[in-house]
Prior knowledge:
By secondary structure, this protein is of the alpha/beta class.
Amino acid sequence: MWRYAKPLAPTLIAAASLGGCAVYDIHSGGTGPYPASNEVPIAANFETTRQHKLQAVEHWRRAAVDSAGALARSVRAGPVVHLRRSCETTGCAPQSCDTVFNRVFFNEFLTALVGLGHRVSLVPVPGAASIEIDVQSVGFAPNRPQYRYAGVPTEIGPGVWALRDIASLVDAQGNAAPRTEGTVHNWWRAEFAGGRTPRNELVVTVSALSPERAYVARDTRIYYTADHDTSLYSCGEAASSRVWTIPVVGDCTAPRCAQPERRQP
C-alpha cells in the first residue's frame, strides 16, 4: 500500500535553522558522509601532484638526463651496453616513423649515459646488457577536467565566506625565496605552466635488460606536451593540422543554380 511521503527539504532546512547553521550528513550508517553500501565504488580524486610540461628542446634534454640518471643508479658503469632506439623497441621503422622528439631524446639520452661513465654501443654486442627506450604518446578528450585556482576559503563572518589568495616569500624552513624577473603577481604563480590543461601527454620508459633478456632496471616518467606541438611527438600527420572538408548542401533548384548560357562570338 502506498503512503504519502512528506517532502524532506523543508524538514532539513528547519533542522538546520534550529541547530544554529549546523550541517548534518545523510547516510545509512557508519561514520563516513556516504552510504555504508553502494552498487559501485565511489569515484574519488587522487591527491594533487605536479607534472612537468614539455615546451622546449631544453626540456627534452632535461627529461633525457633525468631518465639516464635514474637508470644509471642500477646499472654498473664499465661494461659495454647496447642502446636501442625507441622505434627499434616498438617495432616501427626509424626511417618512416621516428618522431622529432624520439630522435632528440635518443641523442640526449646517449650523451647523458656517456657522461655518467657508461660505454655505449649502437650495435648488438655479445654478452652485453641492452638499454631500451619506449615513448608512448597519449591523447585525451578535448574537454578533459581543468585545474582552476580560486584562492583559499576564509570565513569573514558567521556563515559568510570569501576566497583569499595569499603568497609567502619565506619557505617552510624560513629561507627567503629568491626573486626572479617580472612582476610580483607573475612571480607568485610562475611555477605553474600557463594555459589550459594539455590534452596530450607523453610516457617515457627506459629499461635495462641483462644478456638473458631479464629486466634489471626500469624508469618511467610522464609529461604534459603542448597541444600545438602535436606533430613533434606523433608519427605522420598531426591531428591538430588536419584539414576537414565539409560539404554544404543548399537549395539548388532551377533556375537558381542553372549555368548561364555561353554566347557565341
